[in-house]
Structures are given as structure tokens and as C-alpha cells.
Design goal:
heterodimer, A: mainly beta, 5-stranded mixed beta sheet, 4-stranded antiparallel beta sheet, B: alpha+beta, two-stranded antiparallel sheet
């Protein structure tokens, strides 16, 4: 490097060091064009299409082995100790925002983890969640961050100083309503829905004004009297029908549609007391983001008796489908099938199992399961297990490889049984249960299971053929999200405490780090001052890596 | 909970199955760090403590509050108090033997101490049996002796490793991941083995425990069952269990939990 060049670099570095980290407001146009600013991670899925694909190129298959720990952000009070740190971080111009469980927002310098501010929401003692006091992350627009709370609120804080701006209750915590997902901003609205499918809630997706928190529209995922689909619920069963929303939707600006996966019907394991298909539970719905009007729906598991929430990310990809360009949705479902849908119309294009499936004999030409096994009081052992062949763990689609990467649970099974449970507001409303060889929610610190109880994998699905191109097997299962990059890397983790990089084309392990805690969140990548970072929560902390 | 009627217990059990079993399991021991049927509780001791937890949950933990009435919550507590007795269950096939003879057989002809610890003496390959009379029903003990592969509990499984030089290591499986196995051998040596550095490794489907019916007569087995029933050392359920240990199979090697965290911990936040 010449002296002149060295001076120039020093000047640039100095400018960067003293540049204000929080820059201009983030408009929705910025979010729409997030592929133009890959140094930021502006939405839960990195982009509105849900792909979790980054075009940053500094970290490559050749140098990934040199990734080193850059910084760690430890959880401390008032955040709660957890084994499931599920939040995907956001990054805007050098500031990283994360949510420590249950509802503590922390803003840090994305280069070194130094904390700028903390905002702690103290949840009401009435908050009740089936499966842990978790949060999956934030949305942002302008200078505001939006967070759902486990006691049923949507809140906005100023992203410069963590000041609370407004709080909007969206559901009663004492009846089981909680917000665990990262909200989705579409244009001038913040869209969320409530968790609570194990408490007999009545689910919905609703949009709120980012400025005031006022509700703009509401779509009932369990149709109320007079609404289309209400007749798919026998008797009064719609009143406790579930249809929770607990993972973030996606958005197609060209079609002006927002897509959301809908949770299980209530009670979970007894379909007899709610005869009918139980729309729109265990389905994906396509809504007009301006009005909340339903444009189409596709139900994966009608009259679901297995707790097969369709709360996976509807990933949007543009592919050449049987010789012509097609806007499709890629959906790896908890029920064990990988679906390709036309996302303009909801037309079923293909469904293929990506795990062993015994609850149905297969899908018909329209994607509806055939010969479904009925759950009974004696119990019936079926695959996949109750936690599913996948779940809310974020998949990733790489336009570079054309592969769809699925965090999978393979060879697991459950004994599913039904029971007649009365509905009591605020108590679990299960209608039965399922056995778990593999702990669903609270894993032990050690794994002493025999191999025949199942294993975890990252699977590379070729969506054009419905075949698995490669599989990276782990001894334990995984709750990880997946990140793919333009240089041909796939980042993921698992319950064993490893965070690792795979070759996106072959699945070969190129790098791994033992970070000592369960990975239950999605990795992100971003850049500050020309340096690319990869960041992942695990256990009770956020770990961030970069090249030396 | 005083004056508990059979109807109370039945209703408590029904509520337990509907509201609690999804996380805690039908036997109360599904969560890796919580065993509701152990007879003692980490987060409280009095019925009122437990009733408050059932109603209000444990803030800061996954345990949510419920909408149960005080009466129903008390019935659930009564049911939980009855779990240890339910677990011990009725004697099934084996006649009542002599615990004294059983003790002698256990140490002598049965050669059980080679692999099992009782009261701090014995081998590490099999589960520690010091509390087996509390944690296993009689029929389970019988079956473990006569059909050891029928129901291998978590924590009771062996791993067999064949090294590159052909020698074999057999140990109790403590932990494993994609790249390695953690074992304890019969002498209590902790081993961590890279899967890539051995010829072969296996977690056998069958137990490495010999079928005692091949070396002991039925009346001798009955004696040993009677002896094992008397082994009722308090199960360690201190806050240290939260940190891990070997899961449900038995006490941790070299440490019996209970002392890793200050007593009380977050339990004080329950109310």
C-alpha cells in the first residue's frame, strides 16, 4: 500500500469512526429495496420475500475458516435466563437491535457489542404461554421499532433512545393472547397477530398505524358468523378455534399481497369437537395489505388433529417452473410436506414429503391430504412427531444455488391422543396430547437418546424437482434459522451449541464454532465500515463473528 | 392438602392431564430439570407454595399462570403429592422376597456392584441405584432385571466404541453431538471421544446389562427386587439439577446436584 493510499484509508476510517451511527430514517422504500443495502438487515427475514439471502461477499467458502469471534452480548437482568433466545436481530447503519427474553430491546454498536440503550417491557403477571416466554424480534420503520409483548401488546419505541411511544393492547393475556412474533411493516402499516393456539383463542391478523398504534384492519383467521369459511366449524366450535399467528409474514409488492402462515385449530388434538375443515387454521392466507381482505388461501392440514401449525415462513421466489417464469411460494410445512404454490392465485403446484410422513397416505392433485389417520383416545403413533418435520425455524432460499434450505427434524414420531377437555378461559385447551421422545420445548443439557429416536438436519431442497439435494445431519435436532449468502455459504446452528457454515452446493462443513448454547434464532449478516459480520443468538447471548 | 377424598384425587388427575401433562408429561417427569413425582419439590415445600405456583405460575420461567380455582389447584397439588405412591405401584409377578438375602445376592452372586453404585460403592457403567426404590415401580425393577432391554431409560444407555487399534471401550452414554461422544466407564473415568478418531461407535439398542435370570433363580430375583425396593436415599432435587447433570437416569457422576446454585434462587420470585 502506498503512503498516499494509506493516508486516504486512515482518513476514511477516521470519518467512519466518528460518523453518527444512526443515520437517516428508514423509509418503506428502503425496506423494499433492501437488496441494495446489504450492509443492513432491516426486516425479520432480511427482505420482504422471506429468503434470508445476503448479497454481501466478503466472507467466502475460501476464507470462512478464518471467522473469529468479534463480540458477545450477554443477557442480563431485567431480561430472563432462557435456553431459547429466538429473536432475529435487525441492523441499521451500524446499530444492531435485539430482543432478549422476554421483551427487552437492546441497541448496540454492531462492531463491538457496546450497549447504547435498553428498553425493558415488564410483562403483566397474567401473561401465559404454552411454550416459553419468547420473542422473535422487531420491525422498524422511520425512526421507530415495533415489538409484540408476551402480555398481548404491540408497542413502538424510538430507535434512537429507546423511548416508549405507544402501547396498543391487541389481546387479553389472561385469555392466552400473547405476541411472540416479529411484526411486519408493509407500507404504512404494522402487521401482527396473537399466539395462543393452546388456549382456545380466536386468532386474527391485524394492521396498526405506525404513528399512533390505532388498528386499521383486522382479518379473522377463524371466521366469525357471517364471514366466509364460518361454515367449516361445527356448532359453536369456532368460538375457541385457535388460528394463532406467531411467525412473521412476507410481502410481494408486485402482487400487493402479504402472506401469513396460520396456527393450529383449538383444541389441538381433538378434531371431533370441531368437525369441518376449520378454516383458516393450519393454512397460508394471502391478504391485501391495504384492507386486510382475503385474496386466496391454501389449507395444508384440514381439521388438523396433530398441532401442525402452518406457522412457517412463506418464502417467495421467482423461478422457471416447467419452462415458464412463475411467482411461487416455497413452504416447508410442519406436517412433513414441502409445498410449491403459485403465489398469485394459491394454486397448488407440488407437494413432496421432506421427512417420513405417516399421518396421511399422500396429497391429492389439489394438495389435500388423503386417508388421514384419525387421532383417538387410545393414541396412535405417527410421523412426523408433534414438533413437526420443521417448525417456525426460518428456512432460506438462495437464488444463486436455486436451493431451499430447511431446518428439519427427521425420523421423529409421537403418540397422538385425543381427550374431551372443557374450555376454561385462561387454561390450556388441548383436547389431548402427544408424546415427545425428543423434547419439544425444554431440552436437557445432555443428549442420551438412541439414534432411532430421530435426528436433526439442514436439508437442501431443489424446489423445481421436490428432491433433497444434500443433507447435513446432526446428532441432535435443531431449532435454528438458516442464512444463505451470495458467495455460496449457508449458516445455521443447532441444539448441540454449534454455529457453522456449510457449502451451499454440497453441504460440506467449512467452519464451525462451539458457542455453548442452543441456537433457536436466525443468523444474520451485515457490514459496518466495509467489514462483514455474521451474528447469531444462542443460549443467553448474541455471538458475532468476522474475519480478522 | 387435608381431607383429600378419592374424588379430589381423580379430579386433580384429570385437571393435571388436561392442563399440565402437555409440558410435564403424564408421569410428571417429562421436563429435563423437573420431576413432579420425586416426592420433593425444588420451588416450594408446603401445599400453599405449590398451590400458588399452580395458580400464578413462576414468573421468569416457562411455567404460566392458570385460571384454576383455589379448590381445583389444591386438588392438583394433592394429585402431585400422590405421584410417588402411584409410581411405586403394585407388585405384579414376583413374590415378596427377603431384602436381606437380596442384599447379599446383590453384592455376591449377582455381582451387581460391578456396574451399579449403592450408597457410594460400586461401578459407574449402570445407573446409580441408591434411590431406585423411590424412582421406580416394583414392576419396573422386575422388568429391568429380567428383560433389561425392554425399557431403557434416558441416562441408562451404553455406548460401545471400537478404537483404531481394535480395542473396545464400553461406557455409559452421558452426552453426544455430531462430532463426539461423552462416556463414563465402569471405573468412573470420564471419556470424550471424537467420532472421527475411532474405527466404529455404536449406541446399542440392547442393554449391556446381563439378564440375571440366566444366573439367578426366580426366588433369588425376588430377593433382589425386595432389596432394591428398600433403596430409598433421598433423590437430589436441589436447584443444581437445573444446570443439567445426566438427565433422568441417575445422579451425576461425581456430583449429586444440589449445591451448584444458592438455595432458593429464583424460587423466591414465585410469589
Amino acid at each position: 500500500m502506498s503512503n498516499g493510499l494509506r493516508r486516504l484509508v486512515l482518513v476514511l476510517v477516521a470519518a467512519a469512526v466518528f460518523a453518527p451511527l444512526v443515520a437517516a430514517q428508514v423509509s418503506f422504500d428502503h425496506i423494499l429495496a433492501s437488496d441494495k443495502t446489504p450492509h443492513n438487515w432491516l426486516t425479520y427475514s432480511g427482505s420482504l420475500n422471506g429468503q434470508r439471502y445476503s448479497t454481501l461477499t466478503q466472507i467466502t467458502p475460501a476464507n470462512v475458516k478464518d471467522l473469529r469471534l468479534a463480540w458477545v452480548l450477554q443477557t442480563r437482568s431485567p431480561a430472563e435466563p432462557t435456553s431459547k433466545y429466538e429473536a432475529t436481530s435487525l441492523v441499521v447503519d451500524g446499530v444492531l437491535y435485539t430482543v432478549q427474553p422476554p421483551n427487552v430491546i437492546v441497541a448496540v454498536d454492531a462492531r463491538n457489542g457496546r450497549v447504547f440503550w435498553t428498553y425493558a417491557h415488564t410483562p403483566a403477571a397474567t401473561a401465559r404461554l404454552c411454550c416459553g416466554r419468547v420473542n422473535r424480534g422487531l420491525a422498524l420503520l422511520g425512526d421507530r421499532l415495533f415489538m409484540g409483548t408476551i402480555d398481548g401488546n404491540l408497542i413502538a419505541v424510538d430507535r434512537r433512545d429507546g423511548r416508549l411511544l405507544w402501547t396498543t393492547p391487541i389481546g387479553r393475556p389472561e385469555a392466552g393472547y400473547a405476541v411472540t412474533l416479529a411484526p411486519l411493516v408493509v407500507k404504512d402499516k404494522v402487521i401482527v397477530g396473537p399466539a395462543g393456539g393452546e388456549y382456545g383463542i380466536s386468532g386474527f391478523i391485524a394492521a396498526y398505524d405506525p404513528a399512533t398504534g390505532k388498528q386499521v384492519w383486522k382479518f379473522n383467521t377463524v371466521p366469525q358468523p357471517g364471514e366466509a369459511g364460518h361454515d367449516t366449524w361445527a356448532g359453536e366450535s369456532w368460538r375457541t378455534g385457535g388460528g394463532s399467528i406467531w411467525t412473521t409474514g412476507t410481502f410481494d409488492p408486485a402482487l400487493n399481497l402479504t402472506y401469513w402462515g396460520v396456527g393450529n385449530p383449538g383444541p389441538d388434538w381433538n378434531g371431533n369437537v370441531r368437525a369441518g375443515d376449520n378454516l383458516y387454521t393450519s393454512s397460508v392466507v394471502a391478504l391485501d395489505p391495504d384492507t386486510g381482505q382475503l385474496k386466496w388461501h391454501f389449507q395444508f392440514t384440514p381439521n388438523d388433529e396433530f398441532d401442525f401449525d402452518a406457522t412457517q415462513i412463506p418464502v417467495l421466489a421467482d423461478v422457471t417452473w416447467q419452462g415458464r417464469p412463475r411467482r411461487v411460494m416455497l413452504f416447508a410445512n410442519r406436517n412433513g410436506f414441502f409445498y410449491v404454490l403459485d403465489r398469485a392465485t394459491g394454486e397448488f403446484l407440488r407437494g413432496t414429503p421432506f421427512a417420513k410422513v405417516t399421518w396421511t397416505s399422500g396429497l391429492d392433485g389439489k394438495g389435500r391430504p388423503m386417508g388421514r389417520v384419525d387421532v383417538n383416545e387410545a393414541g396412535v403413533v405417527l410421523q412426523p412427531d408433534n414438533q413437526g418435520a420443521t417448525n417456525w425455524y426460518n428456512p432460506s432460499y438462495s437464488p444463486r444455488t436455486g436451493l431451499f434450505y430447511i431446518p428439519s427434524w427427521l425420523d421423529t414420531s409421537s403418540r397422538y391422543f385425543s381427550r374431551n377437555d372443557p374450555y376454561i378461559e385462561g387454561n390450556p385447551f388441548h383436547g389431548g396430547g402427544a408424546s415427545h421422545d425428543v423434547p419439544a420445548v425444554t431440552p436437557a443439557r445432555t443428549n442420551q437418546r438412541p439414534p432411532e429416536m430421530g435426528y436433526g438436519a439442514i436439508q437442501a431442497m431443489d424446489p423445481l424437482t421436490g428432491t433433497i439435494k444434500w443433507q447435513f445431519k446432526m446428532t441432535d435436532v435443531t431449532d435454528t434459522g438458516v442464512l444463505s449468502t451470495a458467495t455460496g455459504l449457508v449458516f445455521a446452528g443447532g441444539r448441540e451449541g454449534y454455529f457453522y457454515a456449510l457449502d451451499a452446493s454440497t453441504g460440506a462443513v467449512l467452519w464451525k464454532a462451539m458457542i455453548g448454547g442452543q441456537v433457536s434464532a436466525g443468523p444474520i449478516t451485515y457490514a459496518v465500515e466495509g467489514k462483514q459480520y455474521v451474528s447469531i443468538p444462542a443460549g443467553n447471548a448474541v455471538f458475532t463473528f468476522a474475519l480478522d | 392438602v387435608h381431607g383429600v377424598t378419592p374424588e379430589d384425587l381423580e379430579r386433580g388427575g384429570t385437571i393435571y392431564m388436561a392442563s399440565c401433562a402437555a409440558c410435564h408429561g403424564t408421569n410428571g417427569d417429562a421436563l429435563p430439570t423437573v420431576d413432579l413425582g420425586a416426592g420433593t419439590f425444588r420451588r416450594g415445600s408446603t401445599d400453599q407454595d405449590l398451590l400458588n405456583i399452580v395458580r400464578n405460575g413462576l414468573p421468569g420461567t416457562p411455567m404460566p399462570p392458570s385460571a384454576l380455582s383455589e379448590g381445583d389447584a389444591a386438588r392438583v397439588v394433592a394429585y402431585l403429592r400422590s405421584l410417588p405412591e402411584l409410581r411405586r405401584g403394585p407388585r405384579t409377578t414376583t413374590p415378596v422376597g427377603s431384602a436381606l438375602n437380596g442384599q447379599a445376592l446383590f453384592k455376591g452372586k449377582g455381582n451387581c456392584l460391578e456396574c451399579h453404585i449403592v450408597g457410594g460403592v460400586g461401578g459407574f457403567l449402570g445407573p446409580n441405584l441408591s434411590s431406585v426404590g423411590l424412582t421406580r415401580r416394583v414392576d419396573e425393577i422386575e422388568r429391568a432385571l429380567t428383560a433389561p432391554s425392554a425399557d431403557i431409560r434416558t441416562g441408562g444407555r451404553a455406548a460401545v466404541v471400537i478404537k483404531n487399534d481394535g480395542t473396545t471401550i464400553t461406557g455409559r452414554l452421558l452426552n453426544q453431538d455430531t462430532y463426539s461422544l461423552q462416556l463414563i466407564d465402569a471405573r468412573g473415568t470420564l471419556l470424550s471421544i471424537d467420532k472421527s478418531a475411532v474405527r466404529r461407535w455404536d449406541i446399542p439398542r440392547d442393554s449391556v446389562m446381563p439378564n440375571v435370570a440366566e444366573r439367578l433363580a426366580p426366588n433369588e430375583i425376588a430377593d433382589i427386587v425386595s432389596y432394591l425396593q428398600t433403596l430409598q436415599a433421598p433423590v437430589p432435587v436441589g436447584p443444581g439439577r437445573r444446570g443439567g447433570g445426566p438427565g433422568r437416569g441417575g445422579p451425576a457422576p461425581g456430583g449429586r446436584g444440589g449445591a451448584q446454585l444458592p438455595a432458593g434462587g429464583r424460587a423466591g420470585a414465585a410469589q
